[in-house]
Amino acid sequence: MKYILFNFFFLISLFTIGQNTAFEITYQRSSNGKIIDNQDLIKVIATSTYALLSTEKIQNNSATVPFEKTIVNTTDLSFTQVASLKNNQVVSYEDKEAIQKQQLELLPDTKKILGYSCKKAKTIINSNTIEIWYTNQIPVKASPSLLGINLGLVLEITRNGNSTTQAISIKKVKLKTDITNTTKNNVDVLTYKDLLWKSRFTTIPIFKDEIINFSSDVKSTDSILKLVNGTVALRKIKVPSETKNQLVFLDLIEQSNGDAYDRTGSVFIIPVQSSKQTFLSGLEKGKEVLPIYENGNGKKYQGVVATTSYEPLTELMRFFTPFGIKQYNHIQLKDKNWEEQVFYRQEITDVLQQYANQEVWIGVFIGNYDKGGHKISMNITLHPEDVPSKLQKMIPLFNTTNVMEMGGQEYGTMFDVAKGLEVQVKLEQPLKNVKLRYITTGHGGWENGDEFVPKKNTLFMNGKEVFQFTPWRQDCGSYRQFNPASGNFPNGLSSSDYSRANWCPGMVTTPTYIDLGDLPAGDYTFQVKIPQGQSEGGSFSAWNVSGILLGE
Hints:
Blueprint: H1 2-14, E1 21-31, E2 34-35, E3 42-46, E4 50-55, H2 56-59, E5 67-73, E6 78-84, E7 90-95, E8 105-113, E9 116-125, E10 128-135, E11 153-159, E12 163-174, H3 189-198, E13 202-212, E14 224-227, E15 232-238, E16 246-256, E17 264-271, E18 277-278, H4 280-285, E19 292-293, E20 301-302, E21 310-311, E22 314-320, E23 342-347, H5 349-352, E24 359-366, E25 374-384, E26 393-399, E27 421-427, E28 431-443, E29 457-461, E30 464-469, E31 508-509, E32 512-519, E33 522-529, E34 542-551
Parallel strand pairs: 18-21
Antiparallel strand pairs: 1-2, 1-3, 1-12, 3-4, 4-5, 5-6, 6-7, 8-9, 9-10, 10-11, 11-12, 13-25, 14-15, 15-24, 16-23, 16-25, 17-22, 17-24, 19-20, 22-31, 26-34, 27-33, 28-32, 28-34, 29-30, 29-33
GO molecular function: oxidoreductase activity, acting on paired donors, with incorporation or reduction of molecular oxygen, reduced ascorbate as one donor, and incorporation of one atom of oxygen
Organism: Flavobacterium indicum (strain DSM 17447 / CIP 109464 / GPTSA100-9)
Keywords: Disulfide bond, Signal
Protein backbone atom coordinates (compact mmCIF):
# COMPACT_ATOMS: atom_id res chain seq x y z
CA MET A 1 0.00 0.00 0.00
CA LYS A 2 2.84 2.40 0.87
CA TYR A 3 4.54 1.60 -2.49
CA ILE A 4 1.31 2.37 -4.37
CA LEU A 5 0.85 5.66 -2.50
CA PHE A 6 4.48 6.64 -3.13
CA ASN A 7 4.18 6.11 -6.88
CA PHE A 8 0.84 7.89 -6.91
CA PHE A 9 2.23 11.02 -5.28
CA PHE A 10 5.41 10.81 -7.44
CA LEU A 11 3.33 10.78 -10.61
CA ILE A 12 1.24 13.68 -9.31
CA SER A 13 4.46 15.63 -8.74
CA LEU A 14 5.55 14.99 -12.31
CA PHE A 15 2.53 16.82 -13.64
CA THR A 16 2.84 19.83 -11.39
CA ILE A 17 5.78 21.65 -12.97
CA GLY A 18 6.17 25.15 -11.65
CA GLN A 19 7.59 28.04 -13.61
CA ASN A 20 11.12 27.38 -12.32
CA THR A 21 10.89 23.59 -12.28
CA ALA A 22 12.33 21.31 -14.93
CA PHE A 23 13.60 17.81 -15.54
CA GLU A 24 17.27 17.06 -16.12
CA ILE A 25 17.85 13.97 -18.24
CA THR A 26 21.34 12.50 -18.57
CA TYR A 27 22.21 10.31 -21.55
CA GLN A 28 25.10 7.91 -22.11
CA ARG A 29 26.41 6.58 -25.42
CA SER A 30 27.47 3.03 -26.19
CA SER A 31 28.71 1.14 -29.24
CA ASN A 32 28.05 -2.57 -29.82
CA GLY A 33 26.90 -2.91 -26.23
CA LYS A 34 30.04 -1.32 -24.75
CA ILE A 35 29.91 2.04 -23.01
CA ILE A 36 32.17 4.57 -24.76
CA ASP A 37 35.08 5.58 -22.53
CA ASN A 38 35.71 9.14 -21.37
CA GLN A 39 32.59 10.49 -23.04
CA ASP A 40 31.02 13.87 -22.37
CA LEU A 41 27.54 12.88 -21.18
CA ILE A 42 24.58 14.49 -22.92
CA LYS A 43 22.52 16.68 -20.60
CA VAL A 44 19.01 17.87 -21.43
CA ILE A 45 17.00 20.36 -19.35
CA ALA A 46 13.29 20.24 -20.20
CA THR A 47 10.34 22.34 -19.07
CA SER A 48 6.75 22.20 -20.24
CA THR A 49 7.58 24.58 -23.11
CA TYR A 50 11.34 24.38 -23.80
CA ALA A 51 14.22 21.90 -23.93
CA LEU A 52 17.92 22.74 -23.78
CA LEU A 53 20.21 20.12 -25.34
CA SER A 54 23.84 20.30 -24.28
CA THR A 55 26.47 18.23 -22.45
CA GLU A 56 27.89 17.83 -18.98
CA LYS A 57 31.04 19.78 -19.85
CA ILE A 58 29.06 22.60 -21.44
CA GLN A 59 26.95 22.94 -18.31
CA ASN A 60 30.10 22.87 -16.15
CA ASN A 61 31.81 25.50 -18.35
CA SER A 62 34.66 23.06 -19.07
CA ALA A 63 33.91 22.27 -22.73
CA THR A 64 36.57 23.08 -25.32
CA VAL A 65 35.51 24.99 -28.41
CA PRO A 66 33.86 24.45 -30.72
CA PHE A 67 30.71 23.13 -29.07
CA GLU A 68 26.97 23.36 -29.73
CA LYS A 69 23.78 23.56 -27.75
CA THR A 70 20.22 23.53 -28.98
CA ILE A 71 17.16 25.34 -27.62
CA VAL A 72 13.85 23.79 -28.69
CA ASN A 73 10.48 25.46 -28.35
CA THR A 74 8.44 22.33 -27.76
CA THR A 75 5.18 24.22 -28.27
CA ASP A 76 5.68 25.21 -31.92
CA LEU A 77 8.63 22.79 -32.54
CA SER A 78 11.01 25.52 -33.68
CA PHE A 79 14.61 25.48 -32.49
CA THR A 80 17.77 27.58 -32.30
CA GLN A 81 21.18 26.00 -32.78
CA VAL A 82 24.01 27.90 -31.05
CA ALA A 83 27.72 27.25 -31.59
CA SER A 84 30.58 28.62 -29.52
CA LEU A 85 33.69 28.95 -31.68
CA LYS A 86 37.25 30.11 -31.20
CA ASN A 87 38.06 33.66 -30.13
CA ASN A 88 34.79 33.90 -28.14
CA GLN A 89 32.79 33.94 -31.37
CA VAL A 90 29.18 32.74 -31.19
CA VAL A 91 26.99 31.95 -34.19
CA SER A 92 23.46 30.59 -34.39
CA TYR A 93 20.63 29.83 -36.73
CA GLU A 94 16.90 29.29 -36.32
CA ASP A 95 14.73 26.59 -37.88
CA LYS A 96 10.93 26.39 -37.76
CA GLU A 97 10.37 23.41 -40.05
CA ALA A 98 12.93 20.63 -39.59
CA ILE A 99 11.31 18.92 -36.58
CA GLN A 100 7.85 19.03 -38.09
CA LYS A 101 9.17 17.43 -41.29
CA GLN A 102 10.48 14.35 -39.47
CA GLN A 103 8.86 11.22 -40.89
CA LEU A 104 8.45 8.79 -38.01
CA GLU A 105 6.79 5.39 -38.18
CA LEU A 106 4.96 4.59 -34.93
CA LEU A 107 5.26 0.92 -33.95
CA PRO A 108 3.34 -1.21 -31.42
CA ASP A 109 6.46 -2.33 -29.50
CA THR A 110 6.81 -1.33 -25.85
CA LYS A 111 9.44 -1.67 -23.13
CA LYS A 112 10.47 -0.03 -19.88
CA ILE A 113 13.45 2.26 -19.46
CA LEU A 114 14.30 3.59 -16.00
CA GLY A 115 10.90 2.27 -14.90
CA TYR A 116 8.90 4.25 -17.50
CA SER A 117 6.72 2.62 -20.12
CA CYS A 118 8.08 3.48 -23.56
CA LYS A 119 6.73 3.25 -27.07
CA LYS A 120 8.75 2.75 -30.22
CA ALA A 121 9.12 4.77 -33.42
CA LYS A 122 11.39 4.27 -36.40
CA THR A 123 12.82 6.35 -39.21
CA ILE A 124 15.51 6.06 -41.91
CA ILE A 125 18.02 8.86 -42.39
CA ASN A 126 20.80 8.68 -45.00
CA SER A 127 20.37 4.88 -45.23
CA ASN A 128 20.66 4.57 -41.43
CA THR A 129 17.83 2.88 -39.54
CA ILE A 130 17.01 4.82 -36.37
CA GLU A 131 14.90 3.32 -33.55
CA ILE A 132 13.44 5.74 -31.02
CA TRP A 133 11.98 4.84 -27.62
CA TYR A 134 9.90 7.52 -25.90
CA THR A 135 7.57 7.91 -22.95
CA ASN A 136 4.53 10.08 -22.30
CA GLN A 137 4.55 9.46 -18.54
CA ILE A 138 6.50 12.69 -17.94
CA PRO A 139 4.88 15.92 -19.19
CA VAL A 140 7.84 17.23 -21.22
CA LYS A 141 9.17 16.86 -24.74
CA ALA A 142 12.89 16.22 -24.90
CA SER A 143 15.50 14.09 -26.66
CA PRO A 144 19.29 13.68 -26.78
CA SER A 145 18.97 15.00 -30.36
CA LEU A 146 16.15 16.59 -32.32
CA LEU A 147 14.87 13.18 -33.39
CA GLY A 148 11.49 12.25 -31.95
CA ILE A 149 11.30 15.29 -29.72
CA ASN A 150 7.71 15.91 -30.90
CA LEU A 151 6.64 12.48 -29.57
CA GLY A 152 7.38 13.04 -25.87
CA LEU A 153 10.42 12.32 -23.72
CA VAL A 154 12.85 10.22 -25.75
CA LEU A 155 14.83 7.88 -23.51
CA GLU A 156 16.74 5.86 -26.10
CA ILE A 157 17.90 6.20 -29.71
CA THR A 158 19.67 3.36 -31.53
CA ARG A 159 21.28 3.65 -34.96
CA ASN A 160 21.64 0.54 -37.11
CA GLY A 161 21.26 -1.67 -34.06
CA ASN A 162 24.74 -0.99 -32.70
CA SER A 163 25.08 2.66 -31.67
CA THR A 164 22.88 3.65 -28.74
CA THR A 165 22.23 6.79 -26.72
CA GLN A 166 20.19 5.96 -23.61
CA ALA A 167 18.96 7.92 -20.60
CA ILE A 168 20.68 6.86 -17.37
CA SER A 169 19.01 9.30 -14.99
CA ILE A 170 16.00 11.62 -14.74
CA LYS A 171 15.67 14.11 -11.94
CA LYS A 172 13.56 17.10 -11.09
CA VAL A 173 15.51 20.36 -10.71
CA LYS A 174 14.89 24.00 -9.90
CA LEU A 175 15.97 26.37 -12.64
CA LYS A 176 18.35 29.14 -11.58
CA THR A 177 18.42 30.81 -15.00
CA ASP A 178 16.24 31.03 -18.07
CA ILE A 179 17.35 28.19 -20.34
CA THR A 180 16.34 30.22 -23.41
CA ASN A 181 18.59 33.11 -22.42
CA THR A 182 21.79 32.63 -24.43
CA THR A 183 24.01 34.68 -26.71
CA LYS A 184 22.85 34.53 -30.31
CA ASN A 185 24.27 35.73 -33.60
CA ASN A 186 21.93 34.45 -36.26
CA VAL A 187 23.29 33.58 -39.71
CA ASP A 188 21.98 31.37 -42.48
CA VAL A 189 22.30 27.64 -41.91
CA LEU A 190 25.07 27.06 -44.48
CA THR A 191 27.21 29.86 -43.04
CA TYR A 192 26.64 28.41 -39.59
CA LYS A 193 27.75 24.91 -40.64
CA ASP A 194 30.77 26.28 -42.48
CA LEU A 195 31.97 28.37 -39.54
CA LEU A 196 31.43 25.48 -37.14
CA TRP A 197 33.30 23.03 -39.37
CA LYS A 198 36.28 25.32 -39.87
CA SER A 199 36.47 25.99 -36.15
CA ARG A 200 37.20 22.28 -35.56
CA PHE A 201 40.71 22.57 -37.01
CA THR A 202 43.52 25.08 -37.55
CA THR A 203 44.14 26.49 -41.00
CA ILE A 204 47.56 27.84 -41.97
CA PRO A 205 47.18 29.89 -45.17
CA ILE A 206 50.16 29.61 -47.53
CA PHE A 207 49.12 31.08 -50.89
CA LYS A 208 45.97 32.82 -52.10
CA ASP A 209 45.40 33.24 -55.87
CA GLU A 210 49.15 33.12 -56.44
CA ILE A 211 50.33 33.15 -60.07
CA ILE A 212 52.98 30.54 -60.95
CA ASN A 213 54.18 31.54 -64.41
CA PHE A 214 57.26 32.15 -66.53
CA SER A 215 58.23 35.80 -66.74
CA SER A 216 61.23 38.00 -66.09
CA ASP A 217 58.91 40.62 -64.63
CA VAL A 218 57.86 38.72 -61.48
CA LYS A 219 58.73 40.32 -58.17
CA SER A 220 58.88 39.05 -54.60
CA THR A 221 56.90 40.66 -51.79
CA ASP A 222 57.55 40.98 -48.08
CA SER A 223 55.83 37.63 -47.47
CA ILE A 224 56.31 35.64 -50.70
CA LEU A 225 59.51 34.95 -52.61
CA LYS A 226 59.08 34.49 -56.38
CA LEU A 227 62.06 32.71 -57.90
CA VAL A 228 63.25 30.96 -61.07
CA ASN A 229 61.42 33.41 -63.35
CA GLY A 230 58.20 33.03 -61.40
CA THR A 231 57.89 29.23 -61.58
CA VAL A 232 58.65 28.83 -57.85
CA ALA A 233 56.94 30.58 -54.93
CA LEU A 234 58.10 30.36 -51.30
CA ARG A 235 56.54 31.46 -48.05
CA LYS A 236 58.04 31.26 -44.56
CA ILE A 237 55.84 29.89 -41.76
CA LYS A 238 56.24 28.77 -38.17
CA VAL A 239 54.98 25.21 -37.77
CA PRO A 240 52.89 25.12 -34.55
CA SER A 241 54.29 23.03 -31.71
CA GLU A 242 50.99 21.12 -31.39
CA THR A 243 51.56 19.70 -34.89
CA LYS A 244 53.42 16.83 -33.17
CA ASN A 245 50.09 15.38 -32.01
CA GLN A 246 47.84 16.34 -34.89
CA LEU A 247 46.89 15.07 -38.30
CA VAL A 248 48.13 17.37 -41.06
CA PHE A 249 46.69 17.87 -44.55
CA LEU A 250 47.81 19.91 -47.53
CA ASP A 251 45.13 21.50 -49.75
CA LEU A 252 45.94 23.02 -53.12
CA ILE A 253 43.54 24.51 -55.67
CA GLU A 254 44.75 25.10 -59.24
CA GLN A 255 43.37 26.59 -62.43
CA SER A 256 44.99 27.67 -65.67
CA ASN A 257 45.81 31.34 -66.02
CA GLY A 258 46.97 30.92 -69.60
CA ASP A 259 48.96 27.68 -69.87
CA ALA A 260 47.05 24.96 -71.77
CA TYR A 261 49.30 22.01 -70.92
CA ASP A 262 49.60 19.34 -68.24
CA ARG A 263 52.54 20.28 -66.04
CA THR A 264 54.53 18.77 -63.21
CA GLY A 265 53.88 20.40 -59.85
CA SER A 266 55.63 19.89 -56.53
CA VAL A 267 55.07 21.23 -53.02
CA PHE A 268 58.18 21.07 -50.86
CA ILE A 269 59.62 22.17 -47.54
CA ILE A 270 63.00 23.70 -46.63
CA PRO A 271 64.09 24.27 -43.01
CA VAL A 272 65.07 27.85 -42.20
CA GLN A 273 67.64 26.81 -39.61
CA SER A 274 69.85 23.95 -40.79
CA SER A 275 73.40 22.86 -40.11
CA LYS A 276 73.64 21.87 -43.78
CA GLN A 277 73.38 23.66 -47.11
CA THR A 278 69.82 23.48 -48.47
CA PHE A 279 68.22 23.83 -51.88
CA LEU A 280 67.34 27.42 -50.96
CA SER A 281 70.90 28.44 -51.83
CA GLY A 282 70.35 27.27 -55.40
CA LEU A 283 66.98 28.99 -55.66
CA GLU A 284 68.49 32.28 -54.53
CA LYS A 285 71.92 32.12 -56.19
CA GLY A 286 71.51 29.72 -59.10
CA LYS A 287 72.00 26.01 -59.79
CA GLU A 288 75.80 26.40 -59.89
CA VAL A 289 76.07 26.59 -56.08
CA LEU A 290 74.40 23.21 -55.55
CA PRO A 291 76.47 20.02 -55.10
CA ILE A 292 76.84 17.90 -58.22
CA TYR A 293 75.85 14.25 -58.60
CA GLU A 294 77.54 12.23 -61.37
CA ASN A 295 77.02 8.58 -62.23
CA GLY A 296 79.19 8.13 -65.33
CA ASN A 297 76.73 9.09 -68.05
CA GLY A 298 78.52 12.37 -68.70
CA LYS A 299 75.92 14.68 -67.17
CA LYS A 300 76.02 16.75 -63.99
CA TYR A 301 72.91 16.78 -61.80
CA GLN A 302 72.58 19.72 -59.41
CA GLY A 303 71.34 19.27 -55.84
CA VAL A 304 69.53 15.95 -56.23
CA VAL A 305 71.12 13.76 -53.50
CA ALA A 306 72.08 14.22 -49.87
CA THR A 307 75.72 14.64 -48.88
CA THR A 308 77.41 15.10 -45.53
CA SER A 309 76.96 18.86 -45.93
CA TYR A 310 73.84 19.16 -48.11
CA GLU A 311 70.13 18.38 -47.62
CA PRO A 312 67.96 17.98 -50.76
CA LEU A 313 64.35 19.14 -51.05
CA THR A 314 61.79 17.33 -48.93
CA GLU A 315 58.74 16.80 -51.12
CA LEU A 316 55.32 17.12 -49.51
CA MET A 317 53.14 16.58 -52.59
CA ARG A 318 53.60 15.73 -56.27
CA PHE A 319 50.70 16.95 -58.40
CA PHE A 320 49.92 17.43 -62.07
CA THR A 321 47.94 20.21 -63.65
CA PRO A 322 45.25 19.26 -66.17
CA PHE A 323 45.04 20.64 -69.69
CA GLY A 324 43.90 24.26 -69.33
CA ILE A 325 41.21 23.98 -66.65
CA LYS A 326 39.10 27.17 -66.33
CA GLN A 327 41.08 29.26 -68.85
CA TYR A 328 40.04 27.02 -71.77
CA ASN A 329 36.54 26.10 -70.64
CA HIS A 330 35.23 27.95 -73.71
CA ILE A 331 36.21 24.87 -75.76
CA GLN A 332 32.82 23.20 -76.05
CA LEU A 333 32.10 19.51 -76.52
CA LYS A 334 28.73 17.83 -76.29
CA ASP A 335 27.96 16.42 -72.81
CA LYS A 336 31.17 17.85 -71.38
CA ASN A 337 30.69 20.25 -68.47
CA TRP A 338 34.20 21.34 -67.56
CA GLU A 339 35.26 21.77 -63.95
CA GLU A 340 36.28 25.29 -62.87
CA GLN A 341 39.27 24.22 -60.76
CA VAL A 342 41.07 21.13 -59.57
CA PHE A 343 41.33 20.43 -55.85
CA TYR A 344 44.27 18.38 -54.52
CA ARG A 345 44.31 17.15 -50.93
CA GLN A 346 46.88 14.90 -49.28
CA GLU A 347 47.84 13.94 -45.76
CA ILE A 348 51.39 15.06 -44.88
CA THR A 349 51.34 14.25 -41.16
CA ASP A 350 54.47 12.11 -41.01
CA VAL A 351 56.59 14.77 -42.70
CA LEU A 352 55.34 18.01 -41.20
CA GLN A 353 55.34 16.62 -37.65
CA GLN A 354 59.13 16.50 -37.87
CA TYR A 355 59.19 20.31 -38.18
CA ALA A 356 56.94 21.07 -35.19
CA ASN A 357 57.84 24.40 -33.56
CA GLN A 358 60.30 25.25 -36.36
CA GLU A 359 60.42 27.94 -39.02
CA VAL A 360 60.32 26.53 -42.54
CA TRP A 361 59.93 27.60 -46.13
CA ILE A 362 56.92 26.06 -47.88
CA GLY A 363 57.36 26.16 -51.65
CA VAL A 364 55.44 25.28 -54.79
CA PHE A 365 56.76 24.66 -58.29
CA ILE A 366 54.87 24.28 -61.57
CA GLY A 367 57.05 23.76 -64.62
CA ASN A 368 55.81 25.98 -67.46
CA TYR A 369 56.97 28.50 -70.03
CA ASP A 370 53.74 30.50 -70.20
CA LYS A 371 53.47 34.15 -69.12
CA GLY A 372 49.95 33.56 -67.80
CA GLY A 373 50.88 30.26 -66.20
CA HIS A 374 48.71 28.90 -63.41
CA LYS A 375 46.79 30.30 -60.45
CA ILE A 376 46.93 28.44 -57.13
CA SER A 377 45.69 28.71 -53.56
CA MET A 378 47.15 26.54 -50.83
CA ASN A 379 46.55 25.84 -47.13
CA ILE A 380 47.82 23.47 -44.48
CA THR A 381 45.24 22.24 -41.98
CA LEU A 382 45.91 20.78 -38.52
CA HIS A 383 43.35 18.41 -37.01
CA PRO A 384 43.41 17.41 -33.31
CA GLU A 385 44.34 13.78 -32.72
CA ASP A 386 44.93 12.01 -29.42
CA VAL A 387 47.64 9.60 -30.62
CA PRO A 388 51.10 11.23 -30.79
CA SER A 389 53.50 10.34 -33.59
CA LYS A 390 56.12 7.68 -32.89
CA LEU A 391 58.38 9.03 -35.62
CA GLN A 392 61.51 10.61 -34.22
CA LYS A 393 63.77 11.03 -37.24
CA MET A 394 63.44 12.10 -40.86
CA ILE A 395 66.31 12.10 -43.36
CA PRO A 396 65.82 13.52 -46.88
CA LEU A 397 67.79 11.28 -49.28
CA PHE A 398 67.11 12.37 -52.85
CA ASN A 399 64.83 14.42 -55.10
CA THR A 400 65.39 14.47 -58.88
CA THR A 401 62.40 16.73 -59.63
CA ASN A 402 64.12 19.67 -61.32
CA VAL A 403 62.33 22.43 -59.44
CA MET A 404 64.76 24.85 -61.08
CA GLU A 405 63.86 23.55 -64.55
CA MET A 406 63.32 27.10 -65.85
CA GLY A 407 66.67 28.05 -64.33
CA GLY A 408 68.59 25.36 -66.21
CA GLN A 409 68.63 22.54 -63.63
CA GLU A 410 69.23 19.17 -65.30
CA TYR A 411 66.33 16.76 -65.81
CA GLY A 412 66.29 13.42 -63.97
CA THR A 413 67.90 11.42 -66.78
CA MET A 414 70.48 9.59 -64.63
CA PHE A 415 68.69 6.25 -65.02
CA ASP A 416 70.07 5.66 -68.52
CA VAL A 417 73.09 3.84 -67.04
CA ALA A 418 73.27 0.84 -64.70
CA LYS A 419 74.26 2.87 -61.63
CA GLY A 420 71.10 4.96 -61.78
CA LEU A 421 70.69 7.10 -58.66
CA GLU A 422 72.86 6.38 -55.64
CA VAL A 423 73.17 8.14 -52.29
CA GLN A 424 75.21 7.43 -49.15
CA VAL A 425 74.00 8.34 -45.68
CA LYS A 426 75.31 7.77 -42.18
CA LEU A 427 72.89 6.94 -39.36
CA GLU A 428 74.32 8.40 -36.18
CA GLN A 429 71.89 6.37 -34.06
CA PRO A 430 69.77 3.23 -34.62
CA LEU A 431 66.23 3.64 -35.96
CA LYS A 432 63.24 1.34 -35.56
CA ASN A 433 60.46 0.59 -38.05
CA VAL A 434 62.19 2.56 -40.78
CA LYS A 435 60.25 3.39 -43.95
CA LEU A 436 61.32 4.98 -47.20
CA ARG A 437 58.69 7.44 -48.41
CA TYR A 438 59.12 7.19 -52.18
CA ILE A 439 57.41 9.22 -54.91
CA THR A 440 58.05 8.38 -58.55
CA THR A 441 56.68 9.57 -61.91
CA GLY A 442 57.96 8.93 -65.44
CA HIS A 443 58.21 11.61 -68.12
CA GLY A 444 58.86 11.77 -71.85
CA GLY A 445 55.84 12.96 -73.73
CA TRP A 446 55.99 11.14 -77.04
CA GLU A 447 54.92 7.70 -78.20
CA ASN A 448 57.95 5.81 -76.86
CA GLY A 449 58.64 8.13 -73.93
CA ASP A 450 58.67 6.70 -70.41
CA GLU A 451 55.56 8.75 -69.63
CA PHE A 452 53.58 6.25 -71.72
CA VAL A 453 55.65 3.07 -71.22
CA PRO A 454 55.51 0.99 -67.99
CA LYS A 455 58.96 0.76 -66.38
CA LYS A 456 59.93 -1.20 -63.28
CA ASN A 457 61.43 0.76 -60.38
CA THR A 458 63.87 -1.25 -58.25
CA LEU A 459 65.30 0.01 -54.96
CA PHE A 460 68.38 -1.30 -53.20
CA MET A 461 69.88 -0.83 -49.74
CA ASN A 462 73.56 -1.71 -49.35
CA GLY A 463 73.44 -3.57 -52.66
CA LYS A 464 70.45 -5.74 -51.70
CA GLU A 465 67.09 -5.33 -53.44
CA VAL A 466 64.46 -4.16 -50.95
CA PHE A 467 61.53 -3.28 -53.23
CA GLN A 468 60.38 -3.26 -56.83
CA PHE A 469 57.18 -2.22 -58.59
CA THR A 470 55.95 -0.77 -61.86
CA PRO A 471 54.31 2.63 -61.22
CA TRP A 472 51.40 3.00 -63.61
CA ARG A 473 47.99 4.71 -63.67
CA GLN A 474 45.18 3.38 -65.85
CA ASP A 475 42.40 5.63 -64.55
CA CYS A 476 43.35 8.87 -66.32
CA GLY A 477 40.06 8.94 -68.21
CA SER A 478 38.35 9.60 -64.86
CA TYR A 479 39.78 13.14 -64.94
CA ARG A 480 38.44 14.09 -68.39
CA GLN A 481 36.14 16.81 -67.00
CA PHE A 482 39.23 18.69 -65.75
CA ASN A 483 40.90 18.80 -69.17
CA PRO A 484 39.15 21.12 -71.64
CA ALA A 485 42.29 21.71 -73.75
CA SER A 486 43.25 18.02 -74.02
CA GLY A 487 43.99 16.94 -77.57
CA ASN A 488 41.47 14.59 -79.24
CA PHE A 489 42.69 11.83 -81.54
CA PRO A 490 41.21 9.84 -84.47
CA ASN A 491 40.90 6.71 -82.31
CA GLY A 492 38.32 8.41 -80.07
CA LEU A 493 40.67 9.04 -77.13
CA SER A 494 41.84 12.32 -75.66
CA SER A 495 45.40 12.88 -74.53
CA SER A 496 44.23 13.09 -70.91
CA ASP A 497 42.68 9.58 -71.22
CA TYR A 498 45.98 7.78 -71.81
CA SER A 499 47.55 5.75 -69.02
CA ARG A 500 50.78 7.17 -67.67
CA ALA A 501 53.77 6.38 -65.46
CA ASN A 502 52.12 6.93 -62.06
CA TRP A 503 50.25 10.16 -62.86
CA CYS A 504 47.34 11.63 -64.75
CA PRO A 505 46.60 15.23 -65.74
CA GLY A 506 44.72 16.63 -62.74
CA MET A 507 45.77 14.27 -59.92
CA VAL A 508 48.12 13.78 -56.98
CA THR A 509 50.74 11.01 -57.05
CA THR A 510 50.62 9.33 -53.67
CA PRO A 511 53.84 8.21 -51.95
CA THR A 512 54.80 4.54 -51.73
CA TYR A 513 56.02 3.45 -48.28
CA ILE A 514 58.78 0.84 -48.32
CA ASP A 515 59.40 -1.03 -45.05
CA LEU A 516 63.11 -1.34 -44.19
CA GLY A 517 62.75 -2.70 -40.65
CA ASP A 518 65.07 -1.75 -37.79
CA LEU A 519 68.35 -0.19 -38.89
CA PRO A 520 71.42 -0.05 -36.62
CA ALA A 521 73.69 2.98 -36.65
CA GLY A 522 76.18 2.98 -39.50
CA ASP A 523 76.76 3.75 -43.17
CA TYR A 524 74.08 2.99 -45.78
CA THR A 525 73.91 3.18 -49.55
CA PHE A 526 70.52 3.57 -51.24
CA GLN A 527 70.11 3.06 -54.97
CA VAL A 528 67.25 3.49 -57.45
CA LYS A 529 67.34 1.75 -60.84
CA ILE A 530 64.86 2.30 -63.68
CA PRO A 531 65.31 1.07 -67.30
CA GLN A 532 65.03 4.57 -68.73
CA GLY A 533 64.17 4.71 -72.44
CA GLN A 534 66.60 5.96 -75.08
CA SER A 535 66.32 9.45 -76.56
CA GLU A 536 64.82 9.88 -80.03
CA GLY A 537 65.91 13.03 -81.83
CA GLY A 538 65.26 15.93 -79.48
CA SER A 539 62.93 13.87 -77.25
CA PHE A 540 64.17 12.24 -74.05
CA SER A 541 62.79 10.44 -71.03
CA ALA A 542 63.30 11.42 -67.38
CA TRP A 543 62.14 10.28 -63.94
CA ASN A 544 61.18 12.50 -61.02
CA VAL A 545 61.84 10.47 -57.88
CA SER A 546 62.04 11.66 -54.29
CA GLY A 547 62.79 9.71 -51.13
CA ILE A 548 63.01 10.38 -47.41
CA LEU A 549 63.72 8.02 -44.52
CA LEU A 550 61.27 7.99 -41.61
CA GLY A 551 62.04 6.09 -38.41
CA GLU A 552 61.32 5.81 -34.70
